[in-house]
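Hi support team,

I submitted a single chain yesterday and got back a structure, but I'm not sure I'm reading the token output correctly. Could someone confirm the output below corresponds to the sequence I sent? I've pasted both exactly as they appear in my results page.

Thanks,
R.
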Amino acid sequence: MHIVGTAGHVDHGKSTLIAALTGVHPDRLKEEIEREMTIELGFAALQLPNGEQIGIVDTPGHRDFIGNMLAGIGGIDAVLLVIAADEGVSAQTREHLAILDLLQIQKGIIVITKTDLINDPEWLELVELEARELVHDTSLSDAPLVKVSAKTGAGLQELIQTMERVLAETPVKSDYGRPRLPVDRVFSLTGFGTIVTGTLLDGTFSVGEEVVCLPTGLHARIRGIQNHNQKQMQSHPGTRTALNLSGIDKSQITRGDVIALPGSYKPTQLLDVSFRYLPSLSASFEHNTEVKLFIGASETVAKARLLGADRLEPGEEGFLQLRLASPIVAVRGDRYILRLPSPSETLGGGIVLDAHPGKLHRRFDPIVLQQLQNLRKGKPSEVLIQALNGMGVSTVADLQQKIGFEENQTLALLQELEQNSQIIVLKPDTNPQKSLIITTSNWEKLEQTILQTLQAYHQAHPLHLGMAREALRSQLELTQAAFDAVLSRLINTNLIEEHGALVAKAGDTISFTPSQQAQADILLEKFKAAPYTPPDVTEAKAIVGEELLQGMIAHQDLVQVSDQILFTPAVVEEMTSWVKNYLLEYGTLTLAEFRDHFQTSRKYAVAVLEYLDEKGVTKRKGDARVLNRIK
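Hi R., thanks for writing in. Yes, this is the structure output for that exact sequence:
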């Protein structure tokens, strides 16, 4: 199903034309009827001769309601640019056409209305000539022109046939598997509850699905779907869609909100965009200009940060970073319009290059400017690499959302880039969307950073076996999943080693200074002098200090068998071997038997036997130990 919108100056006959075509007058509000002027968006349906039912969105022409016009024009497939025969091209005709050109609406028809009011063929010819000149060098330069009278019906059939021909050349909206419905109308009906309408983009909704209203994050469920009063079980991309939602109140949704599947989109308050400043304006566009941003059905105030230039002159293009007063949902490739809040005036528009830049840019950073240039003009693979470079370690799903490509295209590009060694898959997943990826250049930087960090840590703490995993993760600012995948790759390539909760650069060892070694030797002599009743932890700290003692344990000069008890590795091995042999011969071993054999105290005997239990050598059975034969 295709959607056709109207555009044109106030009182040029847009709503009357729609009523003549469809039998439904799109003006539904009391004020609209009284003032004979469209204020809100109007909707109607029309069945073409080929059987296709199309939706028609009637937009306001008055400049006071141009924001409402923008809410409905973004999702259309083609436009009827309406020009009244008795007045010709007017102010809002030009502004609406400028907006259509900025939004790159490529398909449309110029409709000269109210021809019944004109008896002079030469006048009509002049209006037609003016219309042709108007659309020259715009996205509608090739649009056909049809002259009609809604009052007499003249030209209406020709218009319908022309619409059929134009729409036959217009591809249907793509299904990327991530539906979003920009809400252009919300209301409630007794017995049904909350209903939202809009033009569905990027995917399919089904009855019974759980959805989320963004940016609020409120969840709801789809109770019913309608398309022009016809019940549906599913709605498809490009269709005018009404969703009956349960679990959410009408007061919790506003125009510009987006209905989507949970987890598929993230709201943003920062956008990187390309911008074309309209040539018809008289003043320069300055950095930090306060503007109104129109994108999808949303309208929000923003500060426009001009990148790479001090100002733009009328007709010039550049890059902006928009800081939004309130969060919206946007996707790379979305088109937008900027207007001055007061006095109300259309400034220009362009395309979203990055919906989640993550941080404010330095205005004249050459790297940032080159990245934006690549995003604007680059090939799909270059766009993907550019986006992933700015994300570090990312899931495929997050990357896809950032670049706005559909899933199959994204996966095909990633496969090609992996084969060309431009990206690395850190953690494959059976669900490709969950796979963790990184560009090769980012990996090389990250690898270098980790090795340098560990090297610096070891130099600063030569008595430590390694750096705490969590401390390293926090310093790298990686998610737990990303950090685990990065460490796994570094361990598999023998660049780092893990020691429990510690991480060390491969080959790094604990080293003692001569004075530290001398202290350690004094303590070890005491262990040799009393191998089975050596100094405990408190006594050992008094001799060498806590840090050196921990270094000796990490260096495996000593083994800590309990909170307070230490032995040399040789003694632990001797005790373990004796216990195994004794149990093989006698079957059981008591605490007293162990204590008496090694002529030690109960404190040491308890610590050793519990240590052997913990290591799985023995297990306790009543007051005795038996050999643990479970491997």
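A quick pointer for reading it: The radius of gyration is 36 Å. Let us know if anything else looks off.

Best,
Support desk
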